[in-house]
C-alpha cells in the first residue's frame, strides 16, 4: 500500500461562503449545500444563547467539514465577567483541541490568553473604521468582521487600511443599533445583547412623541428594519476586497440553511467565473434537488440597507415579522372565501399575509379553486388588500424531501495482472492513493466483460464523499472478482478521505502582538465594553490611559446612550434636519414605561437613543 501526498498551491484569492449553524444537523446541511465555512456556537459564551452545542458535536462537525476543506469557526463573542475568565479559556482550549479553525470573539481578554488559534474580531467589536481595523490586525487578529451598516465606499476604505481578511454580512436580519454598542435590551431588562441574551426590544411598537407630549406616530415598529440582501452585490464586494460572505441566522432551521446557502453558492460561483484571480475556498460539488429561492424563506423584505449610502425606506413600521412574497390583491370577498387578482398559483397549506391600514392579518389556506381562495378565517380580509405569501407549503416540502449531497470528483486507474491488482484513485486536487492486492489472478474468459465489471465496480462510491468520474482499466485479460475489486475500492476511497482530512487540519495564522500597536483613542467610554481585568490589560498595553467600566456592569442605564444607529427615524419619515424639516422639536420614542430621547448627529448621519425611563431604571 502506498499513499502519495501532493499539495496544490495557489496565489489566487480564496473567496468564502460562510453559513450559520444552529446545531450539528444544520452544519452538515450547510456544508452539503456548498458552504466554504460555518460558524457555530459552543456550550457557552456565544451571542446566541439559543444556539449552543457541546464540544463533542462540534468535533463531529470538524471531522466532516475538513474532508472538503470547509472551515469551522466557533463563536465565543460575548463579553466576559471576571469570574468567567478561567472557564472561558478552558472552553477555548477544549475547542482548539478538537480542531476548530478559528474563534470569533468580542472580548479582548482572549488576546491576553495566548491561545494557539486564529482569532476573528466579531462584528460586536463595532468594526466601522479603517484605523480600528488596522489596529485589530496589528494586535493579532487575522480577520475583521464588518458592521452591517457600512457602505461600499466605507468598506473600500477599510480594505485600503489593512491586509487582514474582511468578512461581510450579505443576508439576513440586521441589528438596528451598531453592533456591540446597543444596550436597549439591557435598559428594559437584565438581558443584554453583549451577553447573548438580547430580548429584541427593537422589534416592539413605539410611539413617536415630542418633548411637549404631542404624538406624531402611535403604535408602530419604529426601530424594526428590513433584512439584508446583498446577493446582487457579490461582485462589487469581491472587487472591494471582501473575502468572506456571511449569512446571518444561527437560530434558523435546516430548511432556511439549505435554501439560502444553495442560493448564495450559485451567486458566488457566478461572480468567480469572471474573476480569474479568485477561487472558492473549499472543494466539492453540491447536488440538490430543488430550485433555491431566498424569498421563500424567512425574510423581512430584504434590501441593501446603507450599502449605497444613508437612505430612507429601510424600516418596516407595520410588522417585524416575515411578510413574504407579493402574490396579488383581493378582488372580491364572501363570508368564506375571496378572489385573488395575481399571477402566482397558491396551494392549500400556504400561509398568507394581508396588508391592512394599521398592520397585517395572517391566515392559512384551506382550499383553492382557480383564483378562489378559502382561508381558515376571513376576519378582516377586504377587497383591495395586498396579499403576500409568507409560507409556501409545496416549496417547503420540496426542500425537506430533497436529497442533498456534496461530492468530490475523482478518477480511478486500475491495473490487473497475473500478480494481482493495483488501484490508484486521484481527486480533483491531485491527492492520490494507491492500493495493492498481491493475489494470483487467472486469465479472464472475456476481456471486454472483465473491463466492464472493473469499470462498474471501481466507479461506485457508496457513502463516501467521492464521485468517481472515470475509470481506466489496464490488463482486462486477467480476471478479478467483483468482491475483490469492491474491497480494493473501499480501502482506497477510505484512505483518500483520510488523506484529505490530514491535509485540511487547521493551519492557523497566529499573528504576533508585541504591544507596539496604539489603540486609536486614549480614553474608553462604557460603550467599549471592558468588564474584566484581562481586557483592561490589553487596552493598557496598547496605549489607553483611561477606561470606564462597561455599561453591562452598571446598575442602571438611566441617562446613558443605549443605542447608536446609522438608521434615522427622521430620515425615514421625511423629517431630516439637513433637508429643512419643519419638525424642530426634540423627539422621543415610548413603549409602556420605557422612554428614550432621540439625539441626531447630522454631521455623521447617525441617531442615538438616550434612556430617559427614570422610574424603570432606578432599581
Question: What does this 3D model show about the protein?
Answer:
This protein is α/β, with parallel strands linked by helices and 619 residues long. Among the domains are: 224 residues, Aldolase class I (TIM Barrel, Alpha-Beta Barrel), CATH 3.20.20.70; 77 residues, Beta Barrel (Elongation Factor Tu (Ef-tu), domain 3), CATH 2.40.30.40; 97 residues, no CATH class. It contains 14 helices and 32 strands. The strands form six sheets. It has an eight-stranded parallel barrel with strand order 2-3-4-5-6-7-8-12, surrounded by six helices. Strands 1, 14, 21, 22, 23 and 25 form a six-stranded mixed β-sheet that branches. A six-stranded antiparallel β-sheet has the order 10-9-30-31-32-29. Strand 2, helix 1 and strand 3 form a beta-alpha-beta unit. Helix 1 runs parallel beside helix 2, helix 4 packs parallel to helix 5 and helix 10 packs parallel to helix 11.
What topology emerges from the helices and strands here?
Elements: E1 2-4, E2 13-21, H1 24-32, E3 37-41, H2 55-65, E4 71-76, H3 85-97, E5 102-105, E6 118-121, H4 130-138, E7 143-145, H5 152-161, E8 165-172, H6 184-188, E9 206-210, E10 215-220, E11 228-229, H7 234-240, E12 244-247, H8 254-273, E13 278-280, E14 285-287, E15 325-333, E16 338-341, E17 351-356, E18 359-369, E19 372-375, E20 386-391, H9 393-401, E21 405-417, E22 420-427, E23 432-438, E24 442-443, H10 447-459, E25 466-474, E26 478-479, H11 482-503, E27 523-524, H12 533-541, E28 546-547, E29 561-565, H13 569-572, E30 587-591, E31 594-601, E32 606-611, H14 614-617
Parallel strand pairs: 2-3, 2-12, 2-13, 3-4, 4-5, 5-6, 6-7, 7-8, 8-12, 21-25, 27-28
Antiparallel strand pairs: 1-23, 8-11, 9-10, 9-30, 14-21, 15-16, 15-20, 16-19, 17-18, 17-20, 18-19, 21-22, 22-23, 24-26, 29-32, 30-31, 31-32
Amino acid at each position: 500500500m502506498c499513499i502519495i501526498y501532493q499539495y496544490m498551491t495557489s496565489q489566487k484569492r480564496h473567496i468564502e461562503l460562510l453559513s450559520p449553524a444552529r446545531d450539528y444537523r444544520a452544519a452538515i446541511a450547510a456544508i452539503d449545500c456548498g458552504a466554504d465555512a460555518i460558524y457555530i456556537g459552543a456550550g457557552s459564551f456565544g451571542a446566541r444563547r439559543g444556539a449552543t452545542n457541546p464540544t463533542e458535536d462540534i468535533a463531529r462537525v470538524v471531522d466532516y467539514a475538513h474532508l472538503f476543506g470547509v472551515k469551522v469557526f466557533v463563536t465565543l463573542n460575548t463579553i466576559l465577567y471576571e469570574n468567567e475568565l478561567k472557564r472561558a479559556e478552558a472552553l477555548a482550549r477544549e475547542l482548539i483541541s478538537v480542531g476548530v479553525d478559528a474563534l470569533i470573539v468580542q472580548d479582548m481578554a482572549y488576546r491576553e490568553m495566548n491561545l494557539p488559534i486564529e482569532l476573528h474580531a466579531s462584528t460586536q467589536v463595532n468594526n466601522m473604521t479603517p484605523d480600528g481595523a488596522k489596529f485589530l490586525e496589528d494586535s493579532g487578529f487575522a480577520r475583521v468582521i464588518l458592521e452591517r451598516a457600512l457602505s461600499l465606499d466605507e468598506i473600500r476604505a477599510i480594505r485600503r487600511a489593512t491586509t487582514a481578511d474582511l468578512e461581510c454580512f450579505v443576508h439576513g436580519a440586521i441589528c438596528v443599533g451598531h453592533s456591540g454598542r446597543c444596550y436597549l435590551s439591557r435598559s428594559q431588562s437584565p438581558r443584554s445583547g453583549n451577553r447573548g441574551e438580547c430580548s429584541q426590544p427593537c422589534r416592539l411598537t413605539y410611539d413617536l412623541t415630542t418633548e411637549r407630549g404631542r404624538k406624531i406616530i402611535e403604535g408602530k415598529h419604529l426601530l424594526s428594519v428590513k433584512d439584508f440582501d446583498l446577493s446582487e452585490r457579490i461582485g462589487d464586494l469581491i472587487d472591494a476586497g471582501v473575502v468572506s460572505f456571511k449569512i446571518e441566522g444561527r437560530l434558523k432551521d435546516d430548511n432556511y440553511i439549505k435554501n439560502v446557502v444553495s442560493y448564495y453558492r450559485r451567486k458566488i460561483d457566478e461572480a468567480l467565473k469572471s474573476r480569474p484571480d479568485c477561487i472558492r475556498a473549499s472543494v466539492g460539488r453540491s447536488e440538490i434537488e430543488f430550485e433555491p429561492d431566498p424569498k421563500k424563506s424567512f425574510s423581512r423584505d430584504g434590501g441593501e440597507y446603507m450599502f449605497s449610502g444613508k437612505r430612507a425606506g429601510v424600516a418596516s413600521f407595520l410588522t417585524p415579522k416575515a411578510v413574504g412574497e407579493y402574490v396579488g390583491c383581493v378582488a372580491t370577498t364572501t363570508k368564506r372565501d375571496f378572489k385573488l387578482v395575481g399571477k402566482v398559483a397558491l396551494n392549500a397549506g400556504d400561509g398568507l399575509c394581508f396588508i391592512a391600514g394599521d398592520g397585517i392579518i395572517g391566515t392559512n389556506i384551506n382550499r383553492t379553486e382557480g383564483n378562489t381562495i378559502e382561508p381558515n378565517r376571513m376576519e378582516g380580509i377586504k377587497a383591495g388588500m395586498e396579499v403576500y405569501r409568507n409560507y409556501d407549503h409545496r416549496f417547503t416540502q420540496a426542500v425537506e424531501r430533497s436529497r442533498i449531497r456534496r461530492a468530490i470528483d475523482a478518477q480511478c486507474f486500475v491495473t490487473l495482472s497475473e500478480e494481482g491488482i493495483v488501484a490508484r484513485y486521484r481527486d480533483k486536487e491531485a491527492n492520490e492513493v494507491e492500493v495493492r492486492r498481491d493475489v494470483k489472478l487467472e486469465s479472464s474468459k472475456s476481456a471486454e466483460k472483465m473491463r466492464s465489471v472493473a469499470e462498474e465496480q471501481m466507479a461506485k462510491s457508496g457513502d463516501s464523499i467521492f464521485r468517481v468520474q472515470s475509470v481506466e482499466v489496464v490488463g482486462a485479460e486477467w480476471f478479478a472478482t467483483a468482491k475483490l475489486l469492491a474491497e480494493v475500492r473501499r480501502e482506497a476511497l477510505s484512505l483518500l478521505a483520510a488523506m484529505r482530512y490530514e491535509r485540511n487540519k487547521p493551519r492557523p495564522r497566529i499573528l504576533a502582538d508585541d504591544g507596539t500597536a496604539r489603540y486609536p483613542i486614549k480614553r474608553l467610554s462604557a460603550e467599549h465594553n471592558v468588564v474584566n481585568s484581562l481586557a483592561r490589560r490589553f487596552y493598557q498595553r496598547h496605549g489607553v490611559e483611561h477606561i470606564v467600566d462597561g455599561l453591562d456592569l452598571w446598575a442602571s442605564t438611566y441617562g446613558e446612550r443605549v443605542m447608536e444607529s446609522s438608521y434615522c427615524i427622521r430620515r425615514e419619515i421625511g423629517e431630516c434636519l439637513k433637508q429643512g424639516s419643519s419638525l424642530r422639536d426634540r423627539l422621543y420614542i415610548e413603549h409602556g414605561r420605557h422612554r428614550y430621547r432621540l439625539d441626531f448627529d447630522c454631521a455623521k448621519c447617525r441617531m442615538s437613543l438616550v434612556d430617559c425611563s427614570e422610574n424603570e431604571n432606578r432599581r
